[in-house]
Design goal:
The protein has 421 residues and is α/β, with parallel strands linked by helices. The protein contains 15 helices and 16 strands. The mean pLDDT is 97. The structure holds N-(iminomethyl)-L-glutamic acid and fe (iii) ion.
């Protein structure tokens, strides 16, 4: 593995030397940086860094490293995208057009579209084709700066097809240059043939899906879509109790469609994160303040569905940590670019660029229990970093919304080339 020396960095930002696993409230406003800096990556890890004025180049053997200049550029830790659904069979642009014409996401779901539409397509596709498509999406996301990712099942909705999705994710883990966490989301929707007997579907998850998932060690976490029209808080409690037997921690979809108790259910079950949060009021904020559960906002979903944005400004001001993720999926968010997510977070949710970057790096790592490995510029962490294009200030990143400012992505200390493999 080649070593890399990055010199003349305009600003090396996102340094954490305190051992912090997440940042909360006012802490999120600070993105620690060294201006005019160098960075030494060795054996795939961040080894050392400092100010150019103090660089003693003679300590490095010229035969053993490549040097690149990052003059006028920022260097940041890669994004950690803690919520995606990148294994899917087909796009759903026809539902997008239905929404343009006035139908809501919930109306489409009630009439058999939405998640059930994706499930029908996924059930008909082979594991191999799903794998090849998802791999391509993953490689594109890495090129846009994602340096660790979570991927959910939830478009199978039968024992066999949930297992098929999770096997695809397992294969992605085996070949991926970035860390992947797998989440079992069999409780994403009630399949049409269980509509009159939802209890039977919940029992199918508990008695058949969970044991199968656990016996092949296919999942790190368990997710439930705990929201109106999907799973109730008490059904979610039952499902999460069962998941605990297999050691699966919870990551919950909640409060996307209403004040439906998703946050309280997540906190009650010691969930690692509760994601969406478009409907978050004072009760949800005080509940989160009493917990270790990471609130995760998905602004790409609000943008695409035209629903409210999660009130993350208020949440940070109340002292909470906040995480940002893409939610890349074919229904509510057909986009996984974290650069766009932070642009939305700044322009629509009023996060500062520094807060948005902390939310999508170190706090994303916390939501995947990867804070010791990734999410900041810290000696000993994985050398997954991004070098921006020349930028006058950090705010240029969200300012040029929709235009990526990442010039180079370095994964495990090596420049990532998305056309390789
Ligand atoms: O996070 N809200 C639930 N699940 C996904 C969307 C799934 C879909 O529409 O396919 C989400 O937005
Ligand atoms: Fe989601």
């Amino acid at each position: 593995m080649a070593n890399l020396l990055v010199t003349e960095i305009k600003s090396l930002a996102g340094i954490i030397e305190t051992g912090a696993l997440k940042l909360s409230g006012k802490e999120m406003a600070h993105l620690y940086a060294i201006d005019n800096a160098w960075l030494w990556l060795e054996n795939g890890l961040i080894c050392d860094y400092g100010a150019m004025s103090k660089l003693d180049i003679s300590r490095f053997d010229p035969m053993e490293y490549t040097q690149i200049s990052a003059k006028d550029c920022f260097v940041l830790p890669c994004f950690v995208d803690s919520h995606t659904h990148i294994v899917f069979a087909k796009t759903r642009e026809e539902e997008f057009v239905m929404r343009i014409k006035g139908k809501t996401y919930e109306e489409i779901a009630e009439s058999g579209g939405g998640i059930l539409n994706s499930a029908k397509r996924l059930q008909a596709m082979s594991e191999e084709d799903l794998f090849l498509q998802a791999k391509q999406r993953l490689w594109e996301l890495i090129a846009f700066g994602t340096g660790a990712i979570e991927i959910k099942s939830g478009y199978g909705l039968t024992v066999q097809d949930e297992i098929k999705m999770l096997r695809v994710i397992k294969r992605l883990k085996e070949i991926s240059p970035i860390p992947i966490k797998a989440t079992f989301l069999g409780a994403h929707a009630i399949p049409a043939n269980y509509k009159e007997n939802r209890e039977a579907y919940i029992q199918l998850i508990i008695e058949h899906m969970l044991p199968a998932v656990a016996s092949e060690q296919l999942a790190d976490y368990m997710d439930v879509f705990c929201d109106q029209g999907f799973f109730t808080p008490s059904e979610t409690d039952t499902l999460l109790e069962a998941a605990k037997i297999y050691g699966l921690k919870a990551k919950i979809h909640g409060n996307e469609l209403g004040y439906t108790g998703g946050v309280q259910t997540a906190v009650r079950n010691h969930a690692l994160s509760v994601d969406h949060l478009e409907y978050t009021g004072d009760a949800e904020i005080s509940c989160l303040l009493q917990s270790e559960t990471m609130p995760v906002a998905l602004p790409g979903c609000s943008f695409f569905l035209g629903i409210p944005y999660a009130p993350v400004r208020k949440m940070i001001d109340a002292g909470l940590p906040v995480c940002l993720a893409s939610d890349f999926n074919p229904g509510s968010t057909p986009n996984g670019r974290m650069g766009f997510v932070i642009a939305l977070a700044c322009s629509q949710m009023k996060l500062t660029p520094e807060e948005a970057i902390n939310a999508s790096t170190i706090n994303g790592a916390y939501a995947l229990e990867l804070s010791n490995e990734i999410g900041s510029i810290t000696r000993g962490k994985r050398a997954n970093i991004m070098i921006t294009k020349p930028m006058s200030s950090l705010a240029i990143m969200p300012y040029y919304f929709g235009v990526d400012q990442i010039a180079q992505v370095i994964i495990n200390g090596e420049i990532f080339n998305s056309s390789k493999d």
